[in-house]
Amino acid sequence: MHFEIAHEFDIPRDALELAVISPHLVDKLGAKVRELGIGIDTIRERARSLKDGVLERVWHYQANIRIPQFARPYVTREMCAWDEQSVYQMSKHHGRWSITPNVKPEWRKYFSAAGTYALEELGDGRSRRVIKGDLELRVRVVRAMAERLVFSEVKKAFEAEAATLRDMATLI
Q1: Which of 46, 103, 144, 160 is most buried per CB count within 10 Å?
Q2: Distance between terminal CA atoms of the chain?
C-alpha cells in the first residue's frame, strides 16, 4: 500500500524545521498522543545524533490497541511495538524513515514500511510537510484489512505529530 500524507502549516519552513529537529519533540509528541487518545502508550527516543546538519534518530513506540479476537492467539502486546529510524538532512529539507517491528527476526519478512519526509516552502510564511511511504504486510487472507488498520494508526500518529509541530514551531 502506497500512501502520502501532507500537512500545511502557517509557519515558515525554517521554524518548522527547528521543531522537527528539536530534542523535545518526542516528549511533546508523547503528551499530544495521550491528549488525543491515540492508541500509543509510549514514545521514547532510543538514539539521537545531530551532526553537520544531519539528524539521525530512533524512536520506540509501544501501541495500546485492541487486538482483534482472531489475532489474539498470535499477537502479543510486545509485538505491537516498533522502532522508527529517521535520517533528516537539513540542507535538503528532506529525510527518509523506516519501521522495524518488535517481532521475532524471522517474522520481520512479513512486514515492511519505509518512506520519505520533506518540508516544502509555500511562500507567505507558510510551509508543507509531505510524508510518502510504502507499507506492506505479506500475510494471506487478511492482508488488505490489516494494512488499512496499520495505516489508520500510522496516520493518527502523523496527525498528532503535525499538531505537535504546530504547537512547537513559534517565531521568536
Answers
A1: 160
A2: 40
Q: What is the C-alpha to C-alpha distance for residues 116 and 163, in angstroms, rounded to an integer?
A: 19
In order along its 172 residues, the chain shows pLDDT tens digits of: 899 999 999 999 999 999 999 999 999 999 999 898 888 889 999 999 999 999 999 999 988 877 778 777 877 777 788 999 999 999 999 999 999 988 878 878 888 899 999 999 998 999 999 999 998 888 776 677 777 777 887 888 888 999 999 888 864 3
- Containing structural domain, residue 143: 2-168
Residues 51, 25: Cα–Cα separation, whole Å: 18
Query: Rounded to an integer, what distance in angstroms lies between the CA atom of residue 94 and that of residue 113?
Result: 18
Q: How far apart are CA 113 and CA 52, in angstroms?
A: 27
- Cα–Cα distances (Å) from 88 to 12, 51, 94, 126, in that order, read 18, 11, 6, 20
CATH code assigned at 117: 3.30.530.20
Please check whether residue 88 is in contact with residue 97, taking contact to mean a CB–CB distance below 8 angstroms: no
What's the number of domains the chain is made of?
Answer: 1
> Which pTM value belongs to this model?
0.83
8 A C-beta contact, residue 55 and residue 86: yes
